[in-house]
Specification:
Helix content: 40-55%
Shape: globular
Number of strands: 20
Strand content: 15-25%
Bound molecules: adenosine-5'-triphosphate
CATH topology of the domain at 235-421: D-amino Acid Aminotransferase, Chain A, domain 1
Largest sheet: 7 strands, antiparallel
Length: about 550
Amino acid sequence: MKYAELADLYRRLEKTTLKTLKTKFVSDFLKKAPDELLDIIPYLILGKVFPDWDERELGVGEKLLIKAVSMATGVPEREIENSVRDTGDLGESVALALEKKKQKSFFSQPLTIKRVYNTFVKIAEASGQGSQDRKLKYLANLFMDAQPEEGKYLARTVLGTMRTGVAEGLMRDAIASAFGVKAELVERAYMLTSDFGYVARVAKLKGNEGLSKVRIQVGKPIRPMLAQNAANVKEALVEMGGKAAFEIKYDGARVQVHKDGDRVVIYSRRLENVTKSIPEVVDAVLESVKPEKAIVEGELVAVGEGGKPRPFQYVLRRFRRKYNIEEMIEKIPLELNLFDVLYVDGDGMIDTPFSERRKKLEEIISQNERIRLAEQLVTTSADEAEEFYQRALELGHEGLMAKRLDSVYEPGNRGKKWLKIKPTMEDLDLVIIGAEWGEGRRAHLLGSFLVAAFDPHSGQFVPVGKVGSGFTDEDLAEFTKMLKPLIVREEGKYVEIEPKVVIQVTYQEIQKSPKYESGFALRFPRYVALREDKSPEEADTIERIAQLYEFQERFKAKR
Ligand code: ATP
């Protein structure tokens, strides 16, 4: 299949904002894709080469890309760089450079999707000495045979800047419609494997029946089960039917650990592969997890003096590290608190009730210095649970989780089987959708960020306030750098920003207000931290804000 056909799809996707039309385009494309390409095409359509959880990455920045295009076209690097200033987009500038290419090579071959993908794999796998040069050569070869429009999309894929508005939900619907299977089954299979390539293949070749037989697999991350809020311990206990497992809610980063013999892979909550950054945890897992094959889940916590938990940002600092890892092991020691088991030696356990999963977890784990079982209290007594809650807070934890003893594991679902209890007026995680350029000394910096909550029904981000305080000058410089490439529109000093960046915001109160279409406005919002561990769709929802507003009013009434 020719790459030109894919380029044509990207172009059509870019031209329409209509979801139904986009879905149809993607679905038609999947339908005509040959079987052997089905594993990779969904990712290419999403503007990626590999799933996010795949460790491989291209490792090509703008500089190297420009060099490759220059090599392929004879257009000087400087000229391509300058042209980006006019077009505002490297993809467009690559297309222009390819148009200028003096002569077509006699041996030029039309690009196929297979060749493009294979080259990407080679680029990703090039490592060690001379790898930059090899990457450059592979890329230049592609651009040499690329038509201008193909070059534009190749560049965007390489840099991860494809903006065709195809997200996960749309891909799910397109797969369902392409192969005449049920969207719920596509969704289920995807929640279990996080692999659209695999799901598309099963949908096409095995239909609804095949999809319903998809099971959790070691080596493919499952979407985590999430929790709703409870106002207090008592309410949680009632909701759980009078008896529940209460567990400490550790304030760290959630991880999913896949063990297969002596191979361990650890995924973050966003299902990124973080294995390499935490080798001491890998060693501890090998020592502690007894079965040959297993998938367990837990919260990774940074511990300080006297074993006291440190804020979750410390763990994220560990995840981001590529160098000096040994030094970080010393500086930020980690402890993994396991709270679930999803797979043991060939048996998927997500349909097993929680109480039995916990029993199994206790069986298969031998605790060591770094790996522990989440502290748990199974009780029918609200007083006992309240005591546990107070103790958890005193120890510096976030609060408690309450879990239904008979509940199955629901991947990706935020239901009522798990409830979290923590002090109310918690901070919110919101998405930046706009900003203002500063004045005077700060004229070159973005400030006063318009933040929004997610509305899962419409898929839109609805504004709830403007955050201008809590930032240091360094924060503002960092945010400006990060957000500039995401600017979609400018009007005077106001800019509209593509919803990508999530920040944690504290505030004094939630007010009902007509000022924003959400109907809510935050009073005195203040920046706390960048939430790199969350995608925009994982930001707090507008329903959550409505719920917090209710809590707040109830609390006020009690005082
Ligand atoms: P928050 O922003 O409050 O951390 P969240 O949106 O990240 O919440 P929730 O579903 O609201 O996720 O809360 C559950 C999270 O709490 C889990 O994703 C996990 O990271 C963390 N956690 C800590 N301790 C436990 C535990 N014992 N059992 C389950 N989850 C736990």
